[in-house]
Write a structure and sequence with these properties.
9 helices, alpha/beta, Rossmann fold
């Protein structure tokens, strides 16, 4: 399939969590576009480790109904889909949260057009300085052709 507008995203952990918690939500639909190759996603190893740490919490396992093994399988599949990015730290810190720094770093070094997150304000104005949009999953979906 063609990539929709050649869009490249960096996915904040909250988007991954929402995708697994809500099968009909915008985050799940966004991951579906990544799965089908219509949208590219970039990630660092650190981001994948954070996804795993958060999704493996008992509260998240209960909310998603997944086992640790199933979380591992989901993340293995995601790791196979994302474009790997080597992190560069020379310009840090830009944000208050070090975990957000990983996402911004992947976006900058991976040539992302947008960071998908529910915490838009956490990435601004830093992402804008790098020419990267920051949007909620539903807003991203609404502007895709």
């Amino acid at each position: 399939m063609d990539i929709i507008g050649n869009m490249i995203l960096a996915l904040d952990t909250d988007v991954i969590v929402a995708a697994l918690r809500s099968p009909r939500g915008a985050s799940r639909r966004l991951l579906g576009l990544v799965r089908t190759g219509q949208v590219k996603a970039v990630a660092t190893v650190g981001m994948l480790i954070e996804y795993e740490a958060v999704l493996s919490r008992p509260v998240q396992l209960a909310a998603t109904g997944l086992t640790l093994g199933e979380v591992g399988s989901v993340l293995d599949a995601l790791a196979a889909l994302v474009v790997p990015v080597t992190p560069h730290f020379l310009w840090r810190p830009q944000l208050r949260d070090p975990n957000d720094e990983m996402v911004l770093d992947a976006a900058v070094n991976g040539g992302a057009d947008c960071i998908a997150t529910f915490n838009v304000a956490d990435y601004l104005p830093a992402a804008a300085r790098f020419g990267i949009a920051v949007e909620r999953p539903g807003d991203i979906l609404r502007r895709l052709p």
